[in-house]
Amino acid sequence: MKRPDARIERTLATLAILIIGAISLVNVVVRYITGGSFAFTEEFSVFLLVMLTFAGASVALRSHRHIRIGLLERALPPLGYRLLVIFQGLCGLLVLGLITWFGALMTWQEYQWQSLSPGLGLPQWWYLIWLPLLSGLMFLRQCQASLERLRGGAHDDA
Question: What span is annotated as the signal peptide, if there is one (predicted)?
Answer without folding.
Answer: none
